User: Fold these one by one.
Assistant:
Number 1:
Amino acid sequence: MISISEAIQLVKHHSFPLLKKAHKPIEKSGGYKLYEDVFSSINMPPFRQSAMDGYALNLHDNLAYSLIGEVKAGDSHQPKLKKGEAVRIFTGAPVPDSANAVIMQEKVLVDGSKITLQIQININLNIRPVGEQVKNGDLALPKGTKLTPAAIGYLSSLGVQKVSVFKKPTIAILNTGNELVEAGEALTYGKIYESNSKMLQNALYNHKYYDVTIHKIEDDYNKTVSKLNEVINANDLVIISGGISVGDYDFVGKALEELKVEPLFYKVKQKPGKPIFFGKKDDKLIFALPGNPAAALTCFYMYVYIALQKFMDNSDVELPRIKAKSVSKFTKSGDRPQFLKAIYNTGEVSILEGQSSAMLQTFAVSNAMVFMDESLSSIEIGDTVDVILLPQ
C-alpha cells in the first residue's frame, strides 16, 4: 500500500500526451487542442468596416455635411462621396472607399438631408482597416491552442470549417458484478441497480471526453480475461469498476496479471478508495476502481482525472486546491487520510453527513472534498482545512 502523493506521482509519470491527429468540424472541436498551426486564408476584416453606428464622411473644412445615402451591414454597393458628403452607416457595414472617417451618431445633429458635427474628428476615426485582426496568410492560431468558444468563433469568422486537433483518448468502462441490473429491469432479491458506469461516463462527458464505451463483465474468470484483452487492445484508457478486491469472485486482478498488464500500484492509503489499481500495457493505461460508488468517484477525481489531463498535454493536471474555514466538526476513525464530501462557499466549507464509500447521496450535492491528512484526527469549527474543488 502506497501513499496518496506516491500514487499521484506514479500516474503523472506514466501518463503521456496522446499526440495522435484527428479531424473535427469546427463546431464540434470544443475542448480539443490544435494539432497544427492555422493560417488565415482571408483578411479580417475583409473590407474597411465601420466600428459603430453613425455617419461615414468625406472630410472637409466645415462641420456641415450633405447626407446622400445609407450603408447597412451586408450591403455591397459603394456610394461615391464628394468632399462634404456623408452616408448613414451601421456597425460592421463596409465603409465606402471615398469616405475617410466615421462619426458616432450621438455626436451629430440631423436636419433632413443635412447633418452637423458637434465635434472635430480626425481622418480614419472609427474605421477598422482591412486585415486589422489578421491578414491573409498570417498565423491565426498556433499549434497547441485550446479551442475555447472564443477560439472557435474566431476561426469560424475566418471561414474555417474543419480543424486538425490532438485526438482525445478512446475510453472503455467495464462493470463487474453479477448483482448488477440495469434500470428498468426487475429488482429481484440480492440485486442492485448499476450506477457506476453512468456516473463515470458522465464524469468523462463533463470534461468533453465523448469516445466512451461501456461493457459488462460477468463474474467468470475466462470471460473476464477475454473482455479485458478486447478492450485493452481497442482503447487508450480502460476504467474497471469493481472486482479488484480479493474475494472469491473478484477476478480482475488475476486477469490483468495473465494479460501481462504491468502493475504500477495496488492499494492506496486513503479512505474511501483504498483498493485501487493502476497499471499499463504498452501505451495503454488501466485503472481498476473500487466497486463502492463514492470510492470509485473519489478515485476518478484523484487519479483518473490526472491521466486524462496528461493525455491532452494540459498544464493543470490536478483539481484545484484551496484553504477554507470549516463550519463543521468531524472526527476521523483510523489512521488513513480521508476525503470528505463537502459544500464550499466563499471561503467556508461544510462537511456533510453520510461519508460512507457506498453512498452517493452526499456526493450528489457536494461541490468539494475536504482532505484530512493522516496527521489529523479531528476537525473543529473554525479550523482551516484543505479543500479540493470538484468540477461542476
Note: Residues 293-311 form the longest helix (19 residues).
Number 2:
Amino acid sequence: MNYFFVFQNKTFKEEHLGGFLWAPKADKNGHTKSHWTMMTNVKKGDVIIHSVHKAIVAISFAISDCYSSSRPDTNFNDWEEDGWRVDTEYRTFQKSILTSDYIDELRKLQPEKYAPFNSRGRGNTGYLFAANAEMFRLIIEETAKVQSSYSYSNQVLELLKTSSDKVLEELSEYSPGLIVESIKSADLKNESNYFKHKGTPKEKQSPIYSNGQKSYPRDRQTALNALAHAHYLCEVDKSHPTFIRKNSDKSYTEPHHLVPMAYSDNFNVSLDVEENIVSLCSNCHNQVHYGEGAEGILRKLYSERKEVLERVGIEVTLKELLQMYSYGLGFFEL
C-alpha cells in the first residue's frame, strides 16, 4: 500500500461527492508538472490523505488504478481538457486537525522527494504529493483525539488496522463507488436487450454504516435491468449520441437514481428499484450532477416516471424532488 497527500482547496466538494481525484496531464503550453504526473503512481488500494485549507478532512482509498480521463465539467475550467483520474472511496472525519499544528512532526516524517511541505513549513504549490505510513499514523492518531465521542475516535483508529486487501473487501459489492465502476466496465454480451418493470414495491434493506456514515445497499443487477428497460438509450433524448461498449453490442449509458439514495430514510420502501433508475448518456448524467439546466432534465424525467414511482411506493412531488437536488444531498449519487 502506498500513501499520497492531496491539496484540494478548490475542488474537494466536487471530487469528494464524485468519488475521484483528477489532475491535468499538462498545462496549455504542453508542460507537465510532477504533482500532476504523481497521479500515475496511484494504484488500486493505495491511501490518499486529503487537505483543504490546512485541515485534514478525509482519507480515501483508491478503488481504481490511475487512468486517462477528460476534465470534469464543474469547477475545473482553469485546466486543460486531458487529464489523469483515480476513483476513490472517501472516509471523511467528523472533526479535523490542522496541518499547521503538527507541521514540525510532519516535515520530519515526510519523504525526502516530492513531499507536500516545504522548509518554511508551508504546503508546496501543487496537487498530489508523496506521503508515507508514518505520516498517515500521526494524522490518524491525532485526528482520533479530537473527535466528539469515543465511538467516532475508535472508527478513526480502526483505519490504522486496514490493509489494502481489507479495504477493498470492506467496500463490498454494495459500495456506490464500486457499483459505478462495475457498471462502467460491465461486459453485457449476455445481458438482455429488454426488461419489463414489475410495478411492485421492493423491501428496503438495512443500512450500512462506514466511519459514522450511513448508506443503503445498491444492487448491480438492478441498475443493469434499468439500462435494459431503456434499451441502453438516453431517457432524456433517445437520439443523444453514445458509443458501443467494448465486447458488446450495447450502447453505453449510465444508471442514475432519480430519487437519490441519500433520501432513503424518507421512504418505507427501497429506492434501489428499476422504476427509480433512469438510463442517461454520459453528458446528461454529468449535467444532472454538475451542470446548468439540470432542473429541466429532472422535470422531464419526473413527469415520465411519476406514475411508475407511485406504483412501487415512492411518492414524491416535483417540488420535493427538486429540493433534494438543490440542497446537494444525493446530488452526486449513482
Note: The chain has two domains: 3-171, 176-326.
Number 3:
Amino acid sequence: MRKHNSYYFAVALVILQLGSSSSSLTHGTVLQQEEDVLRSFLKSRAQITQAANGPVDDDDDDTWADPESSFSNLPTSCPPSAPGAREADRIAAMPGQPPRVNFGQYSGYVTVNEQHGRALFYYFVEAPYQASSKPLVLWLNGGPGCSSLGAGAMAELGPFRVNPDGKTLSRNRHAWNNVANVIFLESPAGVGFSYSNTTSENRASGDKRTAVDAYIFLLNWLERFPEYKGRDFFIAGESYSGHYVPQLAAVIVALRKLGVAGMNLKGIFVGNPLLDFSKNDKGSLEFLWNHGVMSDEAWGLIIEHCSFGPVEGKECTIAEDSVSIGNIDQYNIYAPVCIHGKDGSLHSSSYLPGYDPCIRFYIHDYYNRPEVQTAMHVRTRTDWLQCAPFKRWTDSPASMMPTINWLVDAGLNVWIYSGDMDDVCPITATRYSIKDLNLTVTKPWRPWYTPQREVGGYVQQYEGGFTFASVRGAGHLVPSFQPKRALVLFYSFLKGVLPPATVSV
C-alpha cells in the first residue's frame, strides 16, 4: 500500500452481499466483519495517497521512533477501584450458556478519559483450573475498529461459540482460557459496547489514542482486579492488531525503561498482522500468484509495472485491476462462504469441520438480545455491531518493524504467526517484513507438531528470541480455522519454548 499517514476512509463492503439470520436483521442487511474493514482500509489508504501524489509528511512515525519521550507524561498509577466494582462486573451466567461452566466471567466498563467520557468495554474469563497461577492475557482484534467480543471471544479463542439460533452457546474445547486468564477488550471507543460521550470520538480515532487508552484501561482494570498485579502478562491479537499490540507494548516498555514498575509484560503474540503497507500490497499479489489464482502473464505485468512504493503509475493500476479472483474468501482462499437462501436461511457453501462462515450473524443476534446485554452489564439502548463505522483514522505508521525491533532489543518475547491460507495479510507479506529486522537465525525453519501427530505448521527463531511461525491450513482468523493448532502454538509461546519438533509417541 502507498504511504499516507493522515486520511479519511469509508468502510465499504468488498465481499459477497450476504444476508442476515432470521431474527434481528432485515433481509439483505450486510454485516461488516474485521477482514472486510481491513481490506477497505487498505484500499482507501492507497487511493488517497495516490490522490495526494505521494506520502504526506507528519510526525506520526516519530511517536513510535522514541516511545520513551512520547509517553513519559502518562500516569503510572490511578486511584483504587470503588469498593465492590469487581463483584458488580461478575456475570452470573451468560444467557444460553451450556451446563457446568466452571470459570469466572466478568464484564463492564472502564473509564479511560473523564473529560470526554470515554469508556472501554471488556469481557474477562478466568481459567477453569488454577486460575491464580496462570498468566494474564489481553486480546485485541483489529479492523481498525472491530470488536474483540465478536470475532475473538465468540468465533475464535473464547470459551464459547454462538449457535445458529443466535440465542444459545456451546463450549469451545480449545479456548485459550484453558491455559490463561483472558481479557477481551473492545477498543477504541466507538467499537462494540465501548463509547465516548464526545460524539465525534465515536467516528474518529487513531493508533496513538488507541494505545494510550488501552494502557489507561489496564491501569484501572488492575485496580479492579488487584490479584493480577505482578502476574505474568502478555498481549495478543491479530490483523490490524499488528499495530495495536506492539504499540501498546511499546507504551508499557517505555514507561518501564523510565523506571516505572508498571505491568509485568513478558511478551506479545500477533497473528496474520498488518506490519508494512507496501510489503502487504506486494505480498498479497504474490500470494495469489503462488496459489494459482493469478496467471503468470498477469503477475509478469504487475512485476513489470509496479514498484510497490509510495506512488504507482497508471500501468500498475491497470495491471492489478486486470486480476479476477472470482467468488472466493480472500481471508482463507480455500474456505467455504456463507450463502443466504431465498427463504432467508443461512448455510455454508461447503463443509469445513468446526468452521461456520455464517457465525458473524449469530454473534450479532446474540449480543443484541436484551437479556445478554443485561447479564453483561451493558448500558441501556445499545446497538452492538462487529465493526464501528469510523469515518476518520488519524494516524497509522507505514511500517511497524522499527517498533518491533525496538521491543526485541528491549528484551521482550515477540512472536508473530501466520495462517498460511490468508491473502489479506498473507504469510508472504509477513516474511518480507521480517527481513527488515535483519536478525540472525538461531533455530532454522522446521515443522512443528500437535499432540495429534499432525504437522501444525513451521517455525523459525532469531536472535533476541524473536519467533515466526506458520499455522498450516489456517486463514486470517487462525483460531477459527485451526483451533487445536492455535492453542498448541499459544501454549508454547506462554511457556517460552518452541512448539514440538517431533511427533509425540
Note: Confidence is low (pLDDT under 50) at residues 1-29, 52-59.
Number 4:
Amino acid sequence: MPKALWIAHVEVTDAEAYGRYAKLAGPAIAAFNGKFIARGGRYETLEGADRARHVVAVFSSLEEGAACYRSDAYQEALSHARGASVRDLVVVELVDDAEL
C-alpha cells in the first residue's frame, strides 16, 4: 500500500491560539504513525496563493492520514486552529515506487 502525504498551507492569524493547536496536533499525528518531513521551513511560491507556513507529514497510507484527521485527538487540536488560521489541507497518496 502506498504511503500518503498531508500537505498543509497555512496563514496564521492568531499565533497564541495556533500555538495551542500545534501543541496538540503533533501528538495526535504521531499516534497515527505520522511523521513531519517539512514544517515551517524555507519555501518559494511558484504558483497560486501564498501562505506563510507549509507543513508536510507522511503516513503509512491515505486511510491512516484520513483517520488521523477525523480522530477525536486531532479534532480537539483543530478546534484551536479554526478562527486562528486560514488553511488548506490535503492528503494525497504517493505513487507506488516513491520512497521517503
Note: The helical segments are 15-31, 62-70, 72-81.
